[in-house]
Amino acid sequence: MTAALHVEGARLIDPATGTEVEGTLTLDGGVIAARDGALPRGARVIDGRGLCLAPGIVDWGVKIGEPGERHRESFRSAGLAAAAGGVTTIVARADTDPAIDTPEMLEFVTRRAAQAAPVRIRHMAALTKGRAGREMTEIGFLRDAGAVAFSDGFHTVEDSRVMARTLAYARSLDALVVGHPQDPWLSRGAAATAGKFAALKGLPQVPALAEAIALDRDLALVGMTGARYHADQITTAAALPALARARASGMDVTAGVSVHHLTLNEFDVGDYRTFFRLTPPLRSEDDRLALVEAVATGAVEVIGSFHTPADEEDKRLPFEEAAPGAVGLQTLLPAALRLVHAGALTLPQLFAALSLTPARRLGLSGGTLVPGAPADLVLFDPDAPFVLDRFALLSKSKNTPFDGARMQGRVAMTLVGGVPVHGG
Amino acid sequence: MTFRARHLLGIEQLAPEEIRAVLDLAERYVALNRRTVKQADVLSGMTQINLFFEASTRTQASFELAGKRLGADVMTMGVSQSSVKKGETLIDTAMTLNAMHPDLLVVRHGASGAVSLLAQKLGDCAVLNAGDGRHEHPTQALLDALTIRRAKGRIQRLTVAICGDIAHSRVARSNIWLLGKMENRIRLVAPPTLMPAGAADWGCEVTHDMAEGLADADVVMMLRLQKERMDGGFVPSLREYYHRYGLDADKLRLAKPDAIVMHPGPMNRGVEIDGTLADDINRSVIQDQVEMGVAVRMACMDLLARNLRAERGRRALAETEPDLFDRAGRTA
Question: Which of the two ends of chain A, N or C, has the fewest CB atoms closer than 10 A to its terminal CB?
Answer without folding.
Answer: N
